[in-house]
Amino acid sequence: xxxxxxxxxALHHLAIIMDGNGRWAEERGLPRVAGHQQGVRTVVEIVDExxxxxxxxxxxxxxxxxxxxxxxxxxxxxxxxxxxxxxSQRQRMLDDGVSxxxxxxxxxxxxxxxxxxxxxxxxxxxxxxxxxxxxLSYGGRDEIVRATRKxxxxxxxxxxxxxxxxxxxxxxxxxxxxxxxxxxxxxTSGELRISNFLLWQLAYAELYxxxxxxPDFGPVxxxxxxxxxxxxxxxxxxxxxxxxxGEGLSNSAS
Length: 254
Ligand code: FPP
What we know:
Layout: E1 13-17, H1 21-26, H2 32-52, E2 57-64, H3 72-96, E3 98-103, H4 111-123, E4 130-138, H5 140-156, H6 167-171, E5 184-187, E6 206-209, H7 219-230, H8 240-245, H9 249-253
Parallel strand pairs: 1-2, 1-5, 2-4, 3-4, 5-6
Helix pairs in contact: 2-3, 3-4
């Protein structure tokens, strides 16, 4: 059916940069770890709300390539929280039909964390309501470089001609292969940048920045962001008339 000029854009994939745990804690005179602990509670609430809202894909930036430069004690805390999250949320993910996926350079993770993540991915693989992707030890540039190496290997092996390389080769080689591009990116804590997150995939995403620190971001704030998204008119480089007439443009172009 042709899309009406007034219809809201579909939201299949929501990506979130969860920022501000440290400042939330510091402003309360608490150690940074308290902010991360509260941040995990927010993750649980937001995953629930996304399932309730019928969102099919949720991707959370949980630990960046650059976060390896943080004090060792903070890294250890974050990894411990992650292990705790896997253990405490496993049954809930199974009950709610959430399948877990992890993207990023897992070679830097400890064996314990890597094994827990792989087990959780396998255990929840049949979940069909929502794919929860955690970006861990993740950087968008690093992901593109790793994908380029794999494509170059195919070229060197004579499987792919350089002039035949297209966007689809990148899409199927990036960590996010098989996921649709995010429709909406939310970043909390008032920072107005994307900080090396999903650089390829966010090309046409709508952006939403909110001042609340991640521990203060809850279902109400999420619904506000979704309302804002529903007011947007996505054009993917086309004219307003073309996008009003077109069918399925968001799938092919985003
Ligand atoms: C940004 O806050 C947040 C992080 C670097 C880590 C996000 C991690 C969690 C919410 C908890 C673990 C996640 C899961 C999925 C179990 P910041 O520390 O950069 O805050 P600041 O900018 O105020 O210092």
